Amino acid sequence: MNSFLHTLTDNGPLFWEGFKTTVELFLIAAVGSLVLGTLLAGARVSPVPILRAVGTAYVQTVRNTPLTLLFAFLVFAVPKLDIPIDYFPSACIALIAYTSAFVCEVVRSGINTVASGQAEAARALGMTFGQVLGQIVLPQAFRSIVPPLMSVMIAMLKNTTIAAGFSVLEAGAIPAYMAERGENQFATLIWITIGFLVLIAPLVVLQHRMERKWAVTR
Amino acid sequence: MGGNAMSNILYDLPGPRARARNLVIGVVTAVAVVAVAVYVVSRFIATDQFSTLRTTQFQYTAVQQELANGLLATLKAAAIATVLALVFGAVFAAARLSDHAVIRVPAAWIVELFRAIPLLILIFFFYYVPLQYKMHLPTLWALVFGLTLYNGSVLAEIFRAGILAVPRGQSEAAYAIGLRKSQVMTSVLLPQAVRAMLPAIVSQLVVLLKDTALGFIITYPELLYVAKQIGGRGSFDFPYVVSYLVVAAIYIGICGALSAFAYWLQKRMGRSRRTAAKPVPVDQGNASTAGATV
């Protein structure tokens, strides 16, 4: 038990650094993917055929591509195009590009939960597509969107570990450093697991609370 | 999937002004798409990504063999993990549906735990820990065990949701005519539940297949690993771009076909009258509380 504790205390700065980067990655990718995903969803339900096609093509392609492949492409292939890009921004871009496809689908199915009479009434008042979506449908869709959106964000938080394979020192990279230091790997991984549970728990609690609070029968 | 129906409700049939506006937006979008495409292609041309030197490798049978081996390794890991995850999922779904709290509660904890741990960390448990104790666990099995625990847990939730989706009246009627618990499960609930959850299972298997790419990080020689090998050859001027594009096409082709199959199944199930159960949503795994590999 003592050595288990020492695994963490002896390497405090490494764990701190790792989880700090994980949280940074998560926050940046969360904001980025929420914005891009919502825009994509808007494109997918818009009256403009080309916008719809672009949105659909993006989502279908990205959803069927492994995230690890996106990481690898950004880190190894993009510099070959003479586009200099650092590891951390690469990781952010990969996570945003990937997660926004899933955000898009959640938002889009949320839009479908709003009773059609709402949009019809808004249209009858002479509202444009932007007004119908922005002022009537999305605000109502929000409550049914938030719980699944939270799941997407939790999954994204876990996906940040993949950056470890691409030279970003986040929580997933800790085992490699600890192996070099000859530390106990089992204890290391248990500590990382605990770290993730600590990060995920408030998100899950928040999700359940919102699900209960906003459970509506339509 | 009423996407189209809904989007028709969101806007009126365009009149002259709306048509003009939509045309402008359409043109702007098209110009933006073309601009991005031109930029990408110009980068490709400026850095000469498709030079004969860089593409010539793919005409060698040895390199084609390398790619085939990578694909085979990917499919092998996915196939083993699929079988194990289905078994794991069935066992833990049964445990979570058990009448005995002694079985039900621990099973619930295990399933929730494995869904909450990042998959890569699960894989690391089977990679770094044996390494430290000088035990040799091949990377294939580290990958397969990680995939099994994670996807098995998600599948357990899908199976459970499928069984619970069968209306209560079905099992009540079965009990009423004197069937035993196991008979109710195998001859009444399961046959109906399978139909309801098949699409969700297939889409979880797409997730599993995509996640085999994590094998790259623990140097399991799957498709992505092979792409890095091919791309990293200096004598061919580091054709990373070409090799990753080839591999991306393979992944998108296979996963796209499987996703389309899941979608087709879902539509077909929607029409089916042979089950009283409502279909388990295809994104069950993704919409679950602990989150999933999105």
From TrEMBL, chain A:
It is a multi-pass membrane protein. It holds the Pfam family BPD_transp_1. It is found in: Cell membrane. GO terms for biological process: amino acid transport. Gene3D superfamilies: MetI-like (1.10.3720.10). The chain crosses the membrane at residues 25-43, 64-81, 185-206. One of its GO terms (cellular component) is ATP-binding cassette (ABC) transporter complex. Keywords: Amino-acid transport, Cell membrane, Membrane, Transmembrane, Transmembrane helix, Transport. Residues 19-207 form the ABC transmembrane type-1 domain. The keyword Transmembrane applies. One of its GO terms (molecular function) is transmembrane transporter activity. InterPro entries: AA_ABC_transptr_permease_3TM (IPR010065), ArtM/GltK/GlnP/TcyL/YhdX-like (IPR043429), MetI-like (IPR000515), MetI-like_sf (IPR035906). Signal peptide: none annotated. Belongs to the binding-protein-dependent transport system permease family. HisMQ subfamily. This is Amino acid ABC transporter permease. It comes from Planosporangium flavigriseum.
UniProtKB/TrEMBL annotation, chain B:
GO terms for biological process: amino acid transport. Its main location: membrane. Pfam families: BPD_transp_1. One of its GO terms (cellular component) is ATP-binding cassette (ABC) transporter complex. The chain crosses the membrane at residues 23-46, 77-95, 107-128, 140-159, 196-220, 240-265. Residues 71-259 form the ABC transmembrane type-1 domain. It comes from the Bacteria. Keywords: Cell membrane, Membrane, Transmembrane, Transmembrane helix, Transport. This is Amino acid ABC transporter permease. It comes from Planosporangium flavigriseum. The lineage of its organism: Bacteria, Bacillati, Actinomycetota, Actinomycetes, Micromonosporales.
